[in-house]
Design a protein that fits this description.
about 550 residues, flat, about 20% strand, five-stranded parallel beta sheet, five-stranded mixed beta sheet, alpha/beta, 20 strands
């Protein structure tokens, strides 16, 4: 337009067309540049399943571990909440029945805002996000603003919770269809369901979010013509240690619930398949079913213990009470590494000690060839395994896996004058070095890592022990006991049943008033067996 006013293109259509093309190209280039400079995030709508951490899908786990922001519901299992990355921003959306801490419209705006900041956002929802989860509503605003998103389906409680209670929602001899209905109703308003149609269906009826509406559901079905002796069940906290079921009929279920009691969340199942619960029930047959176990090992060591407990049916909370970090100043260790050939023994007192030593060996520009003919002693099976993973076999393992026995028995095979290197925690067992020094050894005891105490920001451990929700805590060292106490100040520790590896760990637990039990051997398998024995003795 400027050129036209000045007369530069007046009467010259070819010139005007050329300037127009140039302007269009310039505008497109400016738009692309601005778009490239504006961060665009992405939202994943993720179904977390019914609560059991092992029912979380592989894709959901991968996406969750990469999240920068997680907006989660309170119906998500605790063990799944603990999978959220430490560095991620965590936002509690509430969404438990009767406790909606964030209105839906605000939720939608929040997801949009975080994505527009260029963040990887996970909206973590219990069950499946598209089954009465309002997932579609949360995507509408994102789609309107061209925000990329993905949906990760979750295992729905409508299928999984009956399965954990021995109820197949379909069975060739009982039901060839399943119908999932929301039982949610607004306060002081009637339940708006077409009971006439539901009563005529020959398949299984599954009502989600229907505990408060149980009387209305049962009465509505009977009044619409359903047989009063139609089997029905209510299933509480499925796939968790709090799992409980009540099987009755549509005419007696309400009365049975009043008599036996039920807690939310729970689902209602109506249909002949409910009669199979006693015959097909399997979860309650697992040795640790109904027990919620707290595992306090450092994060890098916790999984194997948790996996074995879950195999036995326990609900496991992986809440490390301690965190290990390498010392900032490793100069003493590096000096020892420069003369490894002068040592006769290298002693490891923990898997963490093994890990830190070999990480620092590489960082110092050396590898296992620098170790020469040095002999290796370890405190127990876990440390022995950590060595073996690095292609090295232990030369000595004590008969009892603790520092005192390691020092005493190793000193008995020394001839005197040996030079021994012990890279370990900043605060180690002093008796270990005393025994070796008394045998005439020259001991170089070097702290290579620190033990820091941790407290969960997501789980109130103190409250869960006080209310009896956690059945026992598993401790693998005295430091994990101390870390647990640091994070639960004010707790009456006589309420804590402690499964301990080793005498020192048991002594530490007892010093705080816990009911402490010790595994026969200092191994994970023996520790898991101890937990089973503790449950059997209840």
């Amino acid at each position: 337009t400027g050129g036209y006013k000045k007369g530069t293109v007046k009467g010259n259509p070819e010139r005007a067309e050329s300037l127009g093309r140039d302007l269009a190209i310039k505008l497109r280039q400016d738009y692309r540049k601005e778009k490239e400079q504006t961060p665009v995030g992405k939202v994943w709508l993720v179904g977390a399943g019914p609560s059991d951490a092992e029912l979380l899908t592989l894709k959901a786990k991968r996406v969750l571990e990469q999240a920068e922001v997680v907006v989660y519901d309170r119906l998500v299992g605790e063990s799944i909440l603990l999978m959220m990355p430490e560095a991620a921003e965590k936002i509690d959306a509430g969404k438990r029945s009767g406790n909606h801490t964030m209105p839906q419209e605000q939720m939608n705006e929040l997801l949009l805002k975080k994505a527009q900041e260029g963040k990887c956002v996970v909206r973590l929802k219990g069950g499946d996000p598209f089954l009465f989860g309002r997932g579609g509503e949360e995507l509408e605003l994102l789609a309107k603003h061209n925000i990329p998103f993905e949906v990760v389906p979750g295992v729905t409680s409508a299928i999984s919770v009956p399965a954990y209670n021995g109820i197949p929602v379909t069975h060739r001899d009982y039901a060839s269809s399943v119908h999932i209905i929301t039982g949610h109703k607004k306060k002081d308003e009637p339940l708006n369901l077409d009971f006439t149609t539901l009563a005529k269906l020959e398949g299984t009826l599954v009502f989600l979010m229907g505990v408060s509406a149980l009387p209305d559901i049962c009465a509505g079905l009977i009044n619409a013509g359903m047989e009063k002796d139609m089997p029905a069940a209510i299933l509480q906290k499925g796939t968790t240690a709090g799992q409980k079921r009540i099987v009755a009929t549509v005419s007696t279920l309400e009365e049975e619930v009043k008599r036996q009691g039920i807690e939310t969340p729970a689902i209602i199942v109506v249909g002949k398949v409910c009669t199979l619960a006693e015959k097909f029930g399997w979860y309650e047959e697992l040795p640790l079913a109904g027990w919620k176990v707290l595992v306090t090992r450092p994060k890098e060591l916790v999984s194997r213990t948790a996996d074995k407990l879950r195999e036995k049916g326990a609900e496991v909370l992986e809440l490390p009470a301690i965190r290990t970090v390498p010392m900032e100043d490793q100069s003493r260790l590096y000096q020892a590494m420069d003369q490894l050939e002068t040592y006769q023994w290298l002693v490891f007192t923990s898997p963490t000690g093994v890990r830190v030593f070999f990480e620092e060996l590489i960082r110092h520009g050396k590898d296992i060839r620098a170790m020469g003919k040095i002999r290796l002693a370890v405190i127990g099976e876990g440390t022995k395994k950590a060595l073996k993973e690095r292609g090295l076999l232990a030369d000595f393992v004590p008969s009892v896996y603790d520092g005192d026995t390691l020092g005493k028995e190793l000193s008995e095979i020394l001839s005197g004058g040996e030079k021994i290197l012990i890279p370990r925690a900043e605060k180690g067992n002093e008796k270990l070095t005393e025994f070796l020094a008394q045998a005439g050894a020259e001991v170089e005891d070097i702290p290579t890592y620190q033990t820091l105490y941790e407290k969960s920001q997501l789980i109130d451990e103190k409250k869960e022990f006080e209310t009896g929700q956690i059945s026992c805590a598993v401790f693998t060292s005295a430091s994990t006991v101390k870390g647990f106490v640091e994070g639960t100040k004010g707790l009456d520790y006589s309420k804590v049943k402690a499964a301990c590896i080793g005498r020192q760990t048991k002594a530490a637990a007892e010093s705080f008033g816990m009911k402490a039990y010790m595994s026969e051997k200092a191994t994970i398998d023996s520790l898991v067996k101890l937990v089973e024995d503790m449950k059997r003795s209840e």
